Amino acid sequence: MAAECKTLEQGLRAALRPLRRKSTALACALLTLDILIYTACFYGAAHTASDWRGWCFGCAEGVAIAMLFIVGHDACHGSYTAHRALNGVLGRVAFLPSLTPFRTWELGHNQTHHVYTNLKTRDVVWTPFSKAEYDRLPPVRRALEHLYRSAPGVGLYYAIEIWWHHLWRPLEPGNRRDCALCWGYALAVSLLALRSGWQAWLVAVVFPLVLWNWLMGWAIYEHHTHPEVPWFDNEEEWRAAGGQLACTVHIVLPVPADTVLHFIMQHTAHHLDVTIPLYHLRDAQRLVEASGARVVTYRWSPLAFLRHLRSCKLYDFERGCWTDFEGRPSSGAR
């Protein structure tokens, strides 16, 4: 079984190889457009903060932060342009509005999440507790887990468990420069907004970052959490199942939303080959699904998202199924 999964993934990666081609001109143009959109939204939010238009601009700014982050994410993988040094520069610039330190994201995302997707003790993104682990948690932490796995709580999960614990707390020497860049940027945009008053700072700086955290928590939840997507606590079983293909979801969004989010929700192809740039992900995902490989795909809707939140609370690693907080199965066994 492990050999079959490995052969399938190798065959898909070979088929995807032509889509690794990169265009520096397209990459720079896309980043420039995203920066212009973000800057316009920030300016609009800061200068109309006293009425409803400011909150609309703030919402758009939160989405623009997500757009820039996806560009930075590509650059951090080395897939955005063909030039390593340029990827480092562009990635750091694109990560600034989301206050993401480039170096710790590279270590935690590229070398942990992508290598060990949905393998407990190795992958730290939305790792579920078993019923026994959950029962041993203190009451406050159990309450927090209930909040995390709710519609408003996905943003809090990202802010606390990923951004703070895994991106900012490991202040190793190699990360201090990137943290300093982020703090410097935060101070600069705060001072710019405060020239128009405290309300402008709230609407143009704080609110977009809160929205960004929700969008990021939602996106990474959707990428690898689904009633049909397994988790593993045994590396041999994980390898036998073909972790990258079996544990990643393709979320079908309306074309405008998919385009705005730079096709990152077409996530199976990205996990099979991280060197494919975002501007080829749509073609890559089509190729994967046309191959006949089993891909977990669902057309996104608010109701479907809420159903998944209700179903995917804890994970029974022995039976290979999701359960509710009482330990009752809420999905089929793998």
Explain briefly what this protein structure is.
Helices cover 64% and strands 4% of the residues.
Descriptive notes:
The mean pLDDT is 93. This protein has 334 residues and is mainly alpha-helical. The strands form two sheets. Strands 1-2 form a two-stranded parallel sheet. Strands 3-4 form a two-stranded antiparallel ribbon. It has helices at 2-16, 24-47, 52-77, 84-95, 102-113, 131-136, 139-148, 153-168, 173-194, 198-224, 235-241, 243-246, 255-260, 267-272, 281-290, 302-311; strands at residues 249-252, 296-299, 314-316, 321-323. The longest helix is centred in the middle third of the chain and has 27 residues, at 198-224. It contains 16 helices and four strands. Strand 3 (314-316) and strand 4 (321-323) form a beta hairpin. Helices cover 64% and strands 4% of the residues.
Please give the radius of gyration in angstroms: 20 Å
Give the N-to-C terminal Cα separation: 14 Å
Structural class: mainly alpha
The largest sheet has its strands arranged as 1-2
Helicity, as a percent range: 55-70%
Q: Count of helices? A: 16
User: What can be said about the biggest beta sheet?
Assistant: 2 strands, parallel
Residues in β-strands, percent: under 5%
- Average per-residue pLDDT, rounded, comes to 93
| Unreliable residue runs | none
Q: Give the tally of β-strands.
A: 4
Shape: globular
SSE pattern, N- to C-terminal: HHHHHHHHHHHHEHHHEHEE
